[in-house]
């Protein structure tokens, strides 16, 4: 493979290139959580119990989305390093293997969620029968979308690695726009109620997965599983998986704590957490661009460029996070009313809002540096940061909020401490003079040459 097949030659990726990759990624990342916000607003007008049921069911299905994010981040990192080394075919091959992983894991998650929907809803629901039953019914249908979620994320991963943001943009907008239009129709005129929301979710996620499969088939590359590449992806995925499990466990713990405060705080938590996820996805646009560019720089043997990109990404994340905080502060009294007519939920949301707004600038830097470390293949350190911050800070803070009856504000104070702890540990890493770590040699399809035991392409 000649070097001509790789990315355009650039002496040093600057802020402009980072922004050019981040902007279309911003739209892609915003599309899914924006649909979830529409979903929450539609369901919220069914009543407090329906919104609380969506909070429980959605928190379980979010596990599939986090697995997909892990898969996408690992694939982007590996694809970008191959792309930076001039091997576009190898970068796409990473996408093929990620798609196999996505299909297997997606089916397993769907079957598990359908089978365990009742016990999971009961464990998280705090004993309210109407909320538990609604959450279980929603989850049994929505779980069918898990394979589509993971296929979409795998496709996003390799396309970001080769710095193609146009096709993912079209796919994300098309699938989510169709589903956003279907959701209110299924919930109200069709008379399906809460489960209409679940069917709309399945439609969007399945359509997205099929579109990314079509993009992979259009590359005309071998589609067979390759154990060497799968093993490499699993090694990287292991650290990202532990990171994601620690984060998801922390958020599930917080949801379970809030459920004990009653249905109004739980419904308010659904509004706040979905808005937080929306902001996280929007701010993650900088992280995705950083993954691709830092991975390219490391793969091309330019550690100085990687360090420069880390600084630029952190500053851009700080700017976007500050802008998000300003907007959220301005709409503090208006936005919760879009989701529900219940004054008790509005009052509960006010407890979380100061923490929600105040953490945004710091979160912007954290998300950007997450992407920088993943792009550099530094997932082991990122895993440790998340475990320490989640298990050591966020979970104890949530449990303390329950013990001291601090309400929703106490849980969100814990989330803010979680962000602060991650920020401190990430800054310590990227400021080290020996960062980034040297790249691992890429896995390549191999065969024996003669009897020497040497491996070649």
From TrEMBL:
Region: Disordered, residue numbers: 434-457
* UniProt-annotated location(s): Cell membrane
Give the membrane topology.
Multi-pass membrane protein
According to the UniProt entry, its GO molecular function terms are: antiporter activity; xenobiotic transmembrane transporter activity
Any transmembrane segments, and where?
21-38, 50-73, 98-118, 138-159, 171-192, 198-219, 240-261, 273-294, 315-335, 355-374, 381-404, 410-428
Which InterPro entries does the record associate with it? DinF-like, MATE_fam, MdtK-like
Keyword vocabulary terms for this entry: Cell membrane, Membrane, Transmembrane, Transmembrane helix, Transport
Ranges of Basic residues composition bias in the record: 446-457
- Recorded superkingdom: Bacteria
**What's the name of the protein?**
MATE family efflux transporter
Q: Which organism is it from?
A: Pilimelia terevasa
